[in-house]
Amino acid sequence: MQWQEVRSIYPDQYVLLEILNSHTKDSVQYVNEVALIRAIQDPDEATRELLKCRDNNIVYHTGQEKIEIELRKNPFYRSR
To answer: Mind listing the pLDDT tens digit for each residue in 5-26?
Structure first.
């Protein structure tokens, strides 16, 4: 499914998605095709779901025109 389709079906909502097709350019992942898992009404629930996401799953808001994910090469880990 294309992102524009998801946006038209679920306007102004959070959605849980699986990324099916994407490409990367200059440390940004551009998502071309997604599979909708479910819509999320509550913003707090969307945050909880985002923290649980693994592999190719993401939570995104349909108010965004495109799905563009900034990739960080060296995540900062804090330890003592």
So the answer is: 999 999 999 999 999 999 999 9
> Nearest Cα to 46, choosing from 63, 23, 33, 34?
63
What one-character DSSP code corresponds to residue 64? S
Q: How far is CA 72 from CA 13, 37, 52, 53, in A?
A: 26, 25, 19, 17
> What domain range is 32 assigned to?
3-70
Residue 76 lies in a domain: no
pTM for the full predicted model = 0.84
In a domain, 36, yes or no: yes
C-alpha torsion 49→56→21→62, nearest 10: 10
**How far apart are the two ends of the chain, measured CA to CA in Å?**
45
